[in-house]
Design goal:
alpha/beta, TIM Barrel, 41% helix, 2 domains, 8-stranded parallel beta sheet
Amino acid sequence: MSRLETALTKLLDIEHPVLLAPMGGNSGGAMASAVTEAGGLGIIGGGYGDRAQLAAEIDRAGNTRVGIGFITWAIEDKPEIVSVALERKPAALFLSFGDHKPYVEAIKRAGVLLICQVQSLSQAIDAIESGADVIVAQGQEAGGHGATVRGTISLVPAIADRAGDIPVVAAGGIADGRGLAAALMLGASGILMGTRFCAAEEALWHPDMKAGVVAASGDSTIRTSVFDLLRGPEWPAPFDGRAIRNDAASRWHGNEAALRADLDAERAAYAEADKRGDLGTKVVWAGEGVDLIHDVQPAGDIVRQTVDEAIAMLTDKKTYELSGAT
């Protein structure tokens, strides 16, 4: 298999410029390990900082070199979770959705690389100036949590122009080799994929949720705060989430005041639907690139196929064939 050597692969000492998004409740140790073993970098989703859950997923990764990611605003009242993560000597610590600066000194002291995900140029400049080793430029097309600020295709080159020698990673709407090739042309050194790995065999999601991702269209996704209101905890502005539109989203999006008026009862109903696996109510996070996902595959195959497609695009477009495309 050919390689795409970039500033990111050199810094992280990986073979391929493909990172697994640290999706809480989905990017577990098994999937992170599989991505790393395929030549990318798997990152375990530490989410809201549940210590027992994080320890279990780190153990599942075994001796494989992986990163760990957190929702930054959610760990403000439990900063010790960062120390717990650093004790495991991860390949990198990934912080997003909040102020990363309180953790920079400890991360640097531990000799761990800091990856900061941002949603705007101003956030990127702040991360650059405060010591981030890698910047993830997340466009509003991304699945799961983010912000309706900038699109990937304009945000990536804007940040790359300001980042100097700091590798920039593109995220948002990328689900195949075309996205990787495009990201490199925009000045990125690699990509971070979340939605594509939601349909990986090793993902923690239930098979019905993976099937929902395969069947969905980007046209059917919606950015909304409804699911965070229903599930809890409510996220701070400006963050919301992109998910597949379902009955719950259609009922409550744009009608959040009525939802808040009966929030306890609606949260209880959501919790019951969640237990039943009722996808008419339960959230399935997915980005606009979901159209490009045609099957559930092993995570390692996703990495290799993405890189092979990108290399074909970059070296000889005439011979490029994309599985599932017409």
